[in-house]
Protein: PBS lyase
Amino acid sequence: MSFKAKEKIAALLKEQKYDEIANMVLENKGNIRALRRLLHEPGTLLCWRAIEAMGVVAQRLAEQNPEAVRVILRNLLWTINEESGGIGWTAPECIGEIVYRRPDLFGDYASIIIFYADEDMLRRGVIWAAGRIAQARPDLVARYVPTLAAHLDDPDPVVRGYTLRLLGTMGEKLDIKRYAHLLEDRSTVPVYENGQLHETTVAELAGQLVQATTA
Structure:
Protein backbone atom coordinates (compact mmCIF):
# COMPACT_ATOMS: atom_id res chain seq x y z
CA MET A 1 0.00 0.00 0.00
CA SER A 2 1.40 3.37 -0.94
CA PHE A 3 0.98 6.55 1.08
CA LYS A 4 -0.05 8.24 -2.16
CA ALA A 5 -2.95 5.80 -2.63
CA LYS A 6 -4.17 6.40 0.92
CA GLU A 7 -4.07 10.15 0.45
CA LYS A 8 -5.90 9.94 -2.87
CA ILE A 9 -8.62 7.73 -1.40
CA ALA A 10 -8.98 10.09 1.59
CA ALA A 11 -9.48 12.98 -0.82
CA LEU A 12 -12.09 11.01 -2.79
CA LEU A 13 -13.92 10.12 0.43
CA LYS A 14 -14.21 13.80 1.29
CA GLU A 15 -15.94 14.33 -2.06
CA GLN A 16 -17.96 11.08 -1.72
CA LYS A 17 -16.59 9.79 -4.99
CA TYR A 18 -17.00 6.14 -4.07
CA ASP A 19 -17.14 4.84 -7.62
CA GLU A 20 -13.71 6.32 -8.30
CA ILE A 21 -12.40 4.51 -5.24
CA ALA A 22 -13.98 1.31 -6.54
CA ASN A 23 -12.24 1.86 -9.86
CA MET A 24 -8.90 2.17 -8.04
CA VAL A 25 -9.48 -1.14 -6.27
CA LEU A 26 -10.63 -2.90 -9.42
CA GLU A 27 -7.48 -1.70 -11.19
CA ASN A 28 -5.24 -2.66 -8.28
CA LYS A 29 -6.63 -4.95 -5.58
CA GLY A 30 -3.86 -3.79 -3.25
CA ASN A 31 -5.63 -0.44 -2.91
CA ILE A 32 -8.19 -2.10 -0.63
CA ARG A 33 -5.54 -1.95 2.07
CA ALA A 34 -5.29 1.82 1.66
CA LEU A 35 -9.05 2.10 2.10
CA ARG A 36 -8.99 -0.11 5.17
CA ARG A 37 -6.32 2.07 6.77
CA LEU A 38 -8.91 4.85 6.79
CA LEU A 39 -11.22 2.76 8.98
CA HIS A 40 -8.99 3.14 12.03
CA GLU A 41 -10.59 6.32 13.42
CA PRO A 42 -14.06 5.16 14.51
CA GLY A 43 -16.72 7.81 14.81
CA THR A 44 -15.19 10.33 12.42
CA LEU A 45 -16.96 11.41 9.24
CA LEU A 46 -14.05 10.15 7.14
CA CYS A 47 -14.30 6.73 8.77
CA TRP A 48 -18.04 6.49 8.15
CA ARG A 49 -17.51 7.39 4.51
CA ALA A 50 -14.78 4.76 4.29
CA ILE A 51 -17.29 2.22 5.60
CA GLU A 52 -19.77 3.29 2.93
CA ALA A 53 -17.04 3.13 0.29
CA MET A 54 -16.22 -0.44 1.37
CA GLY A 55 -19.79 -1.34 0.50
CA VAL A 56 -19.56 0.26 -2.93
CA VAL A 57 -16.20 -1.41 -3.61
CA ALA A 58 -17.61 -4.79 -2.59
CA GLN A 59 -20.69 -4.26 -4.73
CA ARG A 60 -18.59 -3.51 -7.79
CA LEU A 61 -16.10 -6.28 -7.07
CA ALA A 62 -18.88 -8.81 -6.60
CA GLU A 63 -19.94 -8.29 -10.20
CA GLN A 64 -16.62 -9.78 -11.31
CA ASN A 65 -15.46 -11.92 -8.43
CA PRO A 66 -17.85 -12.65 -5.52
CA GLU A 67 -15.23 -14.85 -3.87
CA ALA A 68 -12.88 -11.88 -3.59
CA VAL A 69 -15.56 -10.13 -1.54
CA ARG A 70 -15.92 -13.18 0.67
CA VAL A 71 -12.20 -12.95 1.32
CA ILE A 72 -12.70 -9.34 2.43
CA LEU A 73 -15.56 -10.42 4.69
CA ARG A 74 -13.50 -13.21 6.22
CA ASN A 75 -10.62 -10.82 6.83
CA LEU A 76 -12.97 -8.38 8.55
CA LEU A 77 -14.25 -11.16 10.79
CA TRP A 78 -10.69 -12.18 11.57
CA THR A 79 -9.94 -8.70 12.89
CA ILE A 80 -12.61 -9.06 15.58
CA ASN A 81 -11.40 -12.42 16.80
CA GLU A 82 -8.99 -12.53 19.70
CA GLU A 83 -6.62 -14.68 17.69
CA SER A 84 -5.96 -11.77 15.34
CA GLY A 85 -4.14 -9.90 18.07
CA GLY A 86 -6.25 -6.79 17.55
CA ILE A 87 -9.79 -5.54 17.48
CA GLY A 88 -11.69 -4.65 14.34
CA TRP A 89 -13.46 -1.59 15.66
CA THR A 90 -15.34 -0.89 12.44
CA ALA A 91 -15.53 -4.44 11.07
CA PRO A 92 -19.22 -4.90 12.01
CA GLU A 93 -20.23 -1.72 10.23
CA CYS A 94 -18.24 -2.72 7.13
CA ILE A 95 -19.78 -6.17 7.06
CA GLY A 96 -23.23 -4.65 7.50
CA GLU A 97 -22.64 -2.24 4.63
CA ILE A 98 -21.42 -5.01 2.32
CA VAL A 99 -24.40 -7.24 3.13
CA TYR A 100 -26.72 -4.26 2.63
CA ARG A 101 -25.28 -3.75 -0.86
CA ARG A 102 -25.50 -7.40 -1.95
CA PRO A 103 -27.71 -9.38 0.43
CA ASP A 104 -28.38 -11.90 -2.33
CA LEU A 105 -24.73 -12.94 -2.31
CA PHE A 106 -23.61 -12.27 1.25
CA GLY A 107 -26.76 -12.51 3.33
CA ASP A 108 -25.31 -15.44 5.23
CA TYR A 109 -22.99 -13.01 6.99
CA ALA A 110 -25.93 -11.25 8.67
CA SER A 111 -26.34 -13.95 11.32
CA ILE A 112 -22.57 -14.21 11.75
CA ILE A 113 -22.08 -10.55 12.60
CA ILE A 114 -25.20 -10.32 14.78
CA PHE A 115 -23.68 -13.10 16.90
CA TYR A 116 -21.16 -10.54 18.16
CA ALA A 117 -23.83 -8.34 19.79
CA ASP A 118 -22.82 -9.87 23.11
CA GLU A 119 -19.39 -8.24 22.85
CA ASP A 120 -19.44 -4.89 24.67
CA MET A 121 -16.78 -3.28 22.47
CA LEU A 122 -18.49 -4.33 19.24
CA ARG A 123 -22.12 -3.84 20.19
CA ARG A 124 -22.57 -0.38 18.69
CA GLY A 125 -21.28 -1.57 15.33
CA VAL A 126 -23.26 -4.80 15.39
CA ILE A 127 -26.56 -3.06 16.15
CA TRP A 128 -25.84 -0.49 13.45
CA ALA A 129 -24.99 -3.29 11.01
CA ALA A 130 -28.23 -5.10 11.80
CA GLY A 131 -30.17 -1.92 11.12
CA ARG A 132 -28.34 -1.32 7.86
CA ILE A 133 -28.97 -4.85 6.65
CA ALA A 134 -32.62 -4.53 7.64
CA GLN A 135 -32.99 -1.58 5.28
CA ALA A 136 -32.37 -3.96 2.38
CA ARG A 137 -33.49 -7.35 3.71
CA PRO A 138 -35.45 -7.24 6.97
CA ASP A 139 -35.99 -10.98 6.72
CA LEU A 140 -32.29 -11.53 7.42
CA VAL A 141 -32.64 -9.76 10.76
CA ALA A 142 -36.20 -10.54 11.86
CA ARG A 143 -35.44 -13.63 13.95
CA TYR A 144 -32.90 -11.70 16.02
CA VAL A 145 -35.07 -8.67 16.81
CA PRO A 146 -36.39 -9.95 20.17
CA THR A 147 -32.83 -10.54 21.38
CA LEU A 148 -31.46 -7.28 19.99
CA ALA A 149 -34.39 -5.30 21.40
CA ALA A 150 -33.13 -6.14 24.89
CA HIS A 151 -30.32 -3.66 24.27
CA LEU A 152 -32.77 -0.83 24.87
CA ASP A 153 -31.59 -1.35 28.45
CA ASP A 154 -27.93 -1.03 27.51
CA PRO A 155 -25.91 1.46 29.60
CA ASP A 156 -24.41 2.87 26.37
CA PRO A 157 -26.78 5.52 24.94
CA VAL A 158 -25.47 4.94 21.42
CA VAL A 159 -26.48 1.29 21.65
CA ARG A 160 -29.90 2.34 22.92
CA GLY A 161 -30.22 4.78 20.04
CA TYR A 162 -29.14 2.33 17.37
CA THR A 163 -31.52 -0.25 18.79
CA LEU A 164 -34.39 2.21 18.48
CA ARG A 165 -33.42 2.88 14.86
CA LEU A 166 -33.30 -0.85 14.17
CA LEU A 167 -36.76 -1.34 15.66
CA GLY A 168 -38.05 1.53 13.54
CA THR A 169 -36.63 -0.01 10.38
CA MET A 170 -38.25 -3.32 11.28
CA GLY A 171 -41.64 -1.68 11.94
CA GLU A 172 -41.60 -2.74 15.58
CA LYS A 173 -43.40 -0.92 18.37
CA LEU A 174 -41.91 0.50 21.54
CA ASP A 175 -43.27 -0.90 24.78
CA ILE A 176 -44.23 2.43 26.33
CA LYS A 177 -44.97 0.97 29.75
CA ARG A 178 -41.47 -0.41 30.02
CA TYR A 179 -39.52 2.20 28.07
CA ALA A 180 -41.35 5.47 28.69
CA HIS A 181 -38.14 6.80 30.26
CA LEU A 182 -36.44 6.69 26.85
CA LEU A 183 -38.71 9.52 25.73
CA GLU A 184 -36.92 11.70 28.28
CA ASP A 185 -33.42 10.39 27.59
CA ARG A 186 -31.39 13.33 26.28
CA SER A 187 -28.20 11.33 25.76
CA THR A 188 -26.64 12.12 22.38
CA VAL A 189 -26.38 9.58 19.57
CA PRO A 190 -24.24 10.12 16.44
CA VAL A 191 -26.02 9.05 13.28
CA TYR A 192 -24.52 8.70 9.81
CA GLU A 193 -27.04 9.20 7.02
CA ASN A 194 -26.80 10.30 3.40
CA GLY A 195 -23.07 10.89 3.64
CA GLN A 196 -23.31 13.16 6.66
CA LEU A 197 -22.77 12.70 10.39
CA HIS A 198 -25.16 14.40 12.77
CA GLU A 199 -26.21 14.12 16.39
CA THR A 200 -29.63 13.25 17.72
CA THR A 201 -30.80 12.00 21.10
CA VAL A 202 -32.25 8.79 22.46
CA ALA A 203 -35.43 10.75 23.23
CA GLU A 204 -35.78 11.94 19.64
CA LEU A 205 -35.28 8.44 18.28
CA ALA A 206 -37.76 7.00 20.77
CA GLY A 207 -40.27 9.67 19.83
CA GLN A 208 -39.85 8.93 16.13
CA LEU A 209 -40.44 5.24 16.78
CA VAL A 210 -43.61 5.95 18.75
CA GLN A 211 -44.94 8.30 16.06
CA ALA A 212 -44.14 5.87 13.25
CA THR A 213 -45.93 2.97 14.91
CA THR A 214 -49.00 4.91 16.05
CA ALA A 215 -49.64 6.82 12.83
Remarks:
- The chain has a mean pLDDT of 94.
